[in-house]
Amino acid sequence: MRWTWTDGPTKGETHEHVFHKDGTVEWHAIDEPKKGGAAKDDATKEKPDQSKYAALKVADSIYAASGYTLTTVLNFHDHKLFGVASNEKTWSSVQGKFEVVK
Fold first, then answer.
1. Among 16, 40, 67, 83, whose CB has the most other CB atoms within 10 angstroms?
2. Which residues contact 82 (CB under 8 A, 6 or more apart)?
3. What is the pTM of this model?
4. How far, in Å, CA of 28 to CA of 102, rounded?
């Protein structure tokens, strides 16, 4: 999925998310691959961040997803998303749109 933020601290950025069946999610910034926490492995080849996530069906075509520092609600009818980004000190509301890509 590609998430493009229209409001919040990452406004104007697009991030790609890959949700795996094992309960992990990978993500990276589309425009700036190193921004947003891209990590490097032993061969210095870049790879996206990866952490655990949870996804819950709220209603038909509406899901809540929560990960390390981001909790979102995704509406598959209009492809809008709303959420809260947080760290150990603060939180911010976020909004955007998403598309499913292969």
1. 83
2. 72, 73, 93, 94, 95
3. 0.78
4. 15
